[in-house]
């Protein structure tokens, strides 16, 4: 329902009472503001009572106003423009203790990610990665940062990792053209969702590869083709992507696959330590004293 809520409201407009039409009209015209309003504030903006707002939520088929609000939040993830996000961020955070608000919101996203991520899908993803012939990783725009981070550590653990890093759809398909059965592709996508990542995962799935989708919601375009769905909460309400929870999930996934390859990984790091020391890569402890 979240994806079509505005269309549902518009379609049902003739059925609503006068007060409910006022609420519906306000939401349709100002959904970017309404989504963060309490029932009381939405009622005041639409010139109706708080109880009318609650009844409107029931009329729309929700158990209460918070569920209506959640549906609106789900919908706006991919609908708000960058300019609208700036306005929302200013209304939500302007004139407050921004440090505390942002960090507490990130803490909440990590907590929700820990609670909502399927342990069965997590373990299935780990099994598939460890057994894969080739591991492909793809993420676009801000999610590319996460993909590069994962690629950095996966390249230490495995010999068969490929990061898909291109802005060209043609080059993307050239880089994954040999993907097939026995391979794994890990896709990372958060609002506003990248069409290129969704196309890559769809192509991989059709060619028999296992698909691991790390994204924020079941309504994400990369969730539907996932063999293993790893949900990581993010927030696009402001103009800055909050990717703290996805990064924490990636850390857990990296640790889990690393422990499955513990003996090999220990030998790899022993060799790396020797190389780093020989070529003076890192500052030595005695040089800092």
UniProtKB/TrEMBL annotation:
SUPFAM superfamilies attached to this UniProt entry: Homeodomain-like (SSF46689), SIS domain (SSF53697)
CDD domains with a match to the protein in the record: SIS_RpiR (cd05013)
Keyword annotations of the record: DNA-binding, Transcription, Transcription regulation
Superkingdom to which the source organism belongs: Bacteria
Entry GO MF terms: carbohydrate derivative binding; DNA binding; DNA-binding transcription factor activity
Classification via PROSITE patterns: HTH_RPIR, SIS
Record-level GO BP terms: carbohydrate derivative metabolic process
Region forming the signal peptide: none
Domain HTH rpiR-type: 3-79
Keyword Transcription regulation part of the UniProt annotation: yes
Domain SIS, residue spans: 125-265
Stored Pfam families: HTH_6, SIS
Entry protein name: MurR/RpiR family transcriptional regulator
Gene3D superfamilies with a match to the protein in the record: Glucose-6-phosphate isomerase like protein, domain 1, Winged helix-like DNA-binding domain superfamily/Winged helix DNA-binding domain
Organism this protein belongs to: Merdimmobilis hominis
């Amino acid at each position: 329902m979240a994806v079509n809520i505005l269309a549902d409201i518009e379609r049902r407009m003739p059925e609503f009472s006068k007060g409910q039409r006022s609420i519906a009209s306000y939401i349709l015209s100002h959904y970017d503001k309404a989504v963060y309003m309490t029932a009381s504030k939405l009622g005041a903006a639409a010139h109706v009572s708080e109880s009318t707002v609650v009844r409107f939520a029931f009329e729309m088929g929700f158990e209460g106003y918070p569920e209506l609000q959640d549906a609106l939040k789900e919908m706006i993830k991919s609908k708000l423009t960058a300019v609208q996000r700036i306005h929302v961020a200013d209304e939500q955070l302007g004139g407050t203790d921004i440090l505390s608000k942002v960090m507490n919101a990130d803490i909440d996203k990590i907590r929700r990610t820990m609670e909502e991520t399927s342990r069965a899908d997590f373990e299935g993803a780990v099994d598939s990665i460890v057994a894969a012939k080739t591991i492909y990783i793809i993420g676009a725009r801000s999610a590319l940062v996460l993909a590069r981070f994962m690629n950095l550590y996966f390249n230490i653990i495995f010999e068969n990792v490929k990061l898909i890093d291109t802005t060209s759809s043609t080059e993307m398909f050239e880089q994954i053209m040999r993907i097939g059965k026995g391979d794994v592709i890990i896709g990372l996508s958060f609002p506003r969702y990248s069409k290129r990542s969704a196309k890559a995962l769809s192509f991989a799935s059709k060619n028999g590869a296992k698909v691991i989708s790390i994204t924020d919601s079941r309504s994400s375009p990369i969730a539907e083709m996932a063999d293993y769905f790893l949900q990581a909460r993010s927030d696009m309400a402001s103009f800055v992507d909050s990717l703290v929870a996805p990064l924490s999930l990636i850390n857990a996934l990296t640790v889990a696959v690393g422990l499955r390859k513990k003996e090999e990984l220990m030998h790899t790091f022993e060799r790396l330590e020797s190389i780093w020391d020989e070529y003076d890569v890192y500052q030595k402890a005695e040089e800092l004293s």
